[in-house]
Amino acid sequence: MNKTEQDFLLNLACETILAGCNGESHPEIIDPPEELLETCGVFVTLHRHGNLRGCIGYIEGFKPLVNGVIDNALSCAFRDPRFMPLTDDEFEGLEVEISVLTPPVQGTLAEIELGKHGIILSQQGQRSVFLPQVAVEQNWTLETTMNQLALKAGLPENCWSNGEGIFLFESECFSTPFMENTLK
Question: How many domains does the chain have?
Answer without folding.
Answer: 2
